[in-house]
## 1
Amino acid sequence: MSKSTSKASDAKVVSTEPLMIKDARWTRLILTTYKDPLGKQRTWEHAERTTRPKDSQVDGVGIVAILQKRSGPELLLQKQFRPPVDKAVIEIPAGLVDPGESAAESAVRELREETGYHGVVSEVSPIMFNGV
């Protein structure tokens, strides 16, 4: 099947296996110890990206792209295969911030790379946290 006729729904996971810490390229596992509102000490396991540029407060951007159509505004979504769920999912365009790049510059670049659309930033939100 050529790239031009392939679909996200045609992808599938062929195997899964544990990932050794030394081989992890994008994330690392963290164990955080904290006190809950009642003062009880607890732990929380989570992952964090290893890709955040040193000069940036964020490691990634999500893009809410509004297309101005004759029929009215439309939200741009994309369909991508995501191996953790072994399915194609519908999502907003998103991507990682490169070193020396602002969040706005990253958003414009990622929108073009992921969808082919060329956009301009009209608004930047405060920092948001996903999946915490």
## 2
Amino acid sequence: MASTKSFAEAVKARRTFYALTNESTIPDSRIQEIVKDAILHTPSAFNSQTSRAVVLLGEEHVKTWDIIAEVYKQQLPEEKFNRANERFKGFRAAYGTILFYEDTDNVREFQDKFKTYEDKFPGWSEQTNGMHQYHIWTALEAEGLGVNLQHYNPLIDVRLETEYNVPSTWNLKAQMVLGKPTSGPAVENKEFKPVEERMKVYGAK
């Protein structure tokens, strides 16, 4: 069943949660539906549709964070790895991970098609990926899930490509961790810069 929160309520409620369990407040089918809706309906420049996602739930989620820990263990001194591994254990304890990618072949296709804007498409690609992340994050939180966003790429890229048969043209951007929250958000009382410094309005009635 879809959340009854309004879009505005969901936007205001969205926060980062780190303390997550390996439980979900919604069925796996609903998680897939949320991601599918984002892939289908999130806008992109020239309708280029360059964003991609890999949804990893249950044991596949656990395996992903085992892989990430293994990669970093090979790259970091023992002391630094031990500190990083405490974070990995926390992410591993959650319910799922969504990997966000941009298809570089798809980006190049539109660069070739619209030469006037060739230098703009990589930036537009990043923008649409961010919109996908925000869309999914907000929708999951509206369903009672806690979410945090990680960026352990590029060290993990090749291993995850191999494990999940990801095309080499897909460029990894972020790892979204989700699960049932066990406590409040990382920042309980978010501070806001004055909106007057960040917003200008002309011609309003």
